């Protein structure tokens, strides 16, 4: 027995360097992923801070110097009625300021993933209307791609008019409801007068899981019209909270609206062009058209915002436009495709 124990001890001693190397490699891998997640959290926070400065100082305070410094030199504009390039955006805003001398962009929610920042805002003609979600102005979802120096390199946006004469059939406005952690964090820092600090790290697995849920919902609901599939009820809450003014709360009410539409337009699917996940929220940019359609001159265009709880979609906001009407506003100095 003593001889056997001695052999085991010698063997483990012999293998000790290899075991140490394996342990070091494991720790380095863990450290790499932790630091890369932490580094991306810092990048996202700085990107959000840059976009907020663009909105609050450049737009709300009408500071042309801030507007000019916010853009990368090769900035790409995808809104068809705004000229391409930084100066095109600035000249557009100057005209807006002349027509509406007291405008205000009221930020409701903000999201970020990697180099993308998305804002959900209430674009007001007069900042005295702040807080009036059913008043005038536009619901605006903006998507910014940021460069390595935290400047705006590319922009997509979609507006929907806030009509005071349109009532909500679900009792909710376009803007109320739950607010994500990032927005709460930023607003709290602003109230304290503190600078923004990044989260310790990003849970990318959680983000990717939520994205998969939303894409599966999109496939079952919009692409296949498989409304009786039990899986649909596992990933969408029966008491879904709805912020589209024309759609009822609850999954059953939504199915009741879309079932006849799917029969009328069986080839139309949700072509998801971009998806961004931040915490429990997923935002998609969607073109509702036949699969892989390259005709970007017609069909509904939307930004959808989903909130999830434990892998289930529980709340939804959107901004919807008609591409045929949007394309009619295109100007000669912007030839970039809308997606």
Mean pLDDT: 89
Please list the strands of the largest sheet in the order they lie side by side. 1-5-4-3-2
CATH C-level of the largest domain: Alpha Beta
What percentage of the residues does DSSP assign to strands (E)?
25-35%
Shape: globular
Computed Rg: 24 Å
Termini separation comes to: 74 Å
Helical percent range? 40-55%
What's the quick description here?
This protein is of the alpha+beta class. Helix content is 40%, strand content 28%.
Would you mind describing this structure in some detail?
- The protein has about 350 residues and is α+β, with helices and mostly antiparallel strands.
- The chain has two domains: about 35-190, Roll (Nuclear Transport Factor 2, Chain: A); about 205-325, Nuclear Transport Factor 2, Chain: A.
- It has eight helices and ten strands.
- It has helices spanning about 1-60, 65-70, 85-100, 180-190, 205-225, 230-235, 250-265, 325, and strands at about 70-75, 105-115, 115-125, 140-145, 150-160, 235-240, 270-280, 280-290, 300-310, 310-320.
- It has a five-stranded mixed sheet.
- Strand 4 and strand 5 form a beta hairpin.
- Helix 1 packs antiparallel against helix 2 (about 65-70).
- The protein is globular and about 55 Å long.
- Residues about 20-35 have low confidence and may be disordered.
Essential attributes:
10 strands, 339 residues, Nuclear Transport Factor 2, Chain: A, alpha+beta
Produce the secondary structure layout.
Blueprint: H1 2-60, H2 64-70, E1 71-77, H3 86-99, E2 104-113, E3 116-124, E4 138-146, E5 152-161, H4 181-192, H5 204-223, H6 230-235, E6 236-242, H7 251-264, E7 268-278, E8 281-290, E9 300-309, E10 312-322, H8 323-327
């Amino acid at each position: 027995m003593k001889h056997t124990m001695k052999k085991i001890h010698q063997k483990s001693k012999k293998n000790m360097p290899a075991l140490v190397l394996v342990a070091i490699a494991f720790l380095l891998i863990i450290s790499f992923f932790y630091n890369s997640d932490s580094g991306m959290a810092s990048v996202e926070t700085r990107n959000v801070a840059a976009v907020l400065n663009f909105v609050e100082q450049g737009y709300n305070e009408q500071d042309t110097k801030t507007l000019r410094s916010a853009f990368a030199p090769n900035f790409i504009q995808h809104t068809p009625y705004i000229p391409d390039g930084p100066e095109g955006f600035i000249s557009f805003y100057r005209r807006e300021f002349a027509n509406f001398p007291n405008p205000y962009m009221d930020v409701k929610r903000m999201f970020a993933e990697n180099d993308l920042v998305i804002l959900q805002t209430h674009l007001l003609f007069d900042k005295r209307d702040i807080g009036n979600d059913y008043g005038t102005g536009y619901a605006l979802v903006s998507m910014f791609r940021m460069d390595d120096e935290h400047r705006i390199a590319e922009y997509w946006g979609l507006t929907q008019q806030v009509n005071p004469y349109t009532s909500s059939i679900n009792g909710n406005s376009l803007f109320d409801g739950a607010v994500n952690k990032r927005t709460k964090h930023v607003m709290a820092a602003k109230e304290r007068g503190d600078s923004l600090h990044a989260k310790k790290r990003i849970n990318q697995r959680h983000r990717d899981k939520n994205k998969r849920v939303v894409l599966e919902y999109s496939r079952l609901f919009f692409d296949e019209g498989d409304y009786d599939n039990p899986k649909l009820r596992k990933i969408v809450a029966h008491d879904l909270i709805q912020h589209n003014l024309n759609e009822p709360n609850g999954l059953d009410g939504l199915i009741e609206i879309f079932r006849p539409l799917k029969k009328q337009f069986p080839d139309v699917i949700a072509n998801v062009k971009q998806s961004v996940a931040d915490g429990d929220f997923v935002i998609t940019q969607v073109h509702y058209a036949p699969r892989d359609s390259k005709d970007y001159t017609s069909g509904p265009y939307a930004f959808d915002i989903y909130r999830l709880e434990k892998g289930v979609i529980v709340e939804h906001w959107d901004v919807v436009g008609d591409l045929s009407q949007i394309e009619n506003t295109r100007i000669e100095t912007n030839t970039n495709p809308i997606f």
